[in-house]
Amino acid sequence: MTDQPNNGATLPTENTTEQQFVIQKIYLKDVSFESPQAPDIFVATEWSPEVNVQVANNARKLGEGVFETALTITATATHNAETIYLAEVQYAGIFTIAGFDDASAQQILGAYCPNLLQPYIRETVSDLVMKGGFPQLILQPINFDHLYAQHVAEQLEQTHGRPQ
């Protein structure tokens, strides 16, 4: 038998742990919709709401190598300083992450997992706003890799002070 190259892949040995990433479950964790100006807002002659979208992400350890990442999006539409609607959706996933160094595992939880959850939460927010009687809200893609890199840079700055 001849030795064949493994194309750069690392084979597990006694001294290494095989890297594993598994999506165990993706689920809707929390949803809320409020329309405090209804039904009056629907008979208004003209209004053009200002929509503010807030994004939050957090992760927590559930067990050995098992984590939950939760992504929350809050969309608030206002007109003349009055809230037209408020939609808040939280999607979460349970993930097995094993064999990665700490920095890689944190990057997976802080960027990769939210990227996986994003299509689910975008659809839910859009449907929720439409079912509330308002025009569809199409959320723009979010670059979680960039946001995570910013977060890491901010943490380093707070820990070590500003570079000179």
Overview of this structure, please?
With 164 residues, the protein is of the alpha+beta class. It contains two helices and four strands. It has a single domain (20-160), classed as SecB-like (Bacterial Protein-export protein SecB), CATH 3.10.420. The chain has helices at residues 102-131, 144-160, and strands at residues 20-34, 50-63, 66-79, 82-98. A four-stranded antiparallel β-sheet has the order 1-4-3-2. The longest helix is centred in the C-terminal third of the chain and has 30 residues, at 102-131. It is elongated. The chain starts with 19 loop residues before the first strand and ends with a helix.
Features:
single chain, 164 residues, alpha+beta, Bacterial Protein-export protein SecB, four-stranded antiparallel beta sheet, 2 helices, 4 strands, disordered N terminus
Give the SSE map.
Blueprint: E1 20-34, E2 50-63, E3 66-79, E4 82-98, H1 102-131, H2 144-160
Antiparallel strand pairs: 1-4, 2-3, 3-4
Helix pairs in contact: 1-2
Poorly predicted regions are 1-13
Radius of gyration: 21 Å
Main β-sheet description? 4 strands, antiparallel
Q: Provide the CATH architecture.
A: Roll
Mean pLDDT level: 88
Tally of distinct domains: 1
- Total helical segments: 2
Spatial order of the strands in the main sheet? 1-4-3-2
Overall 3D shape: elongated
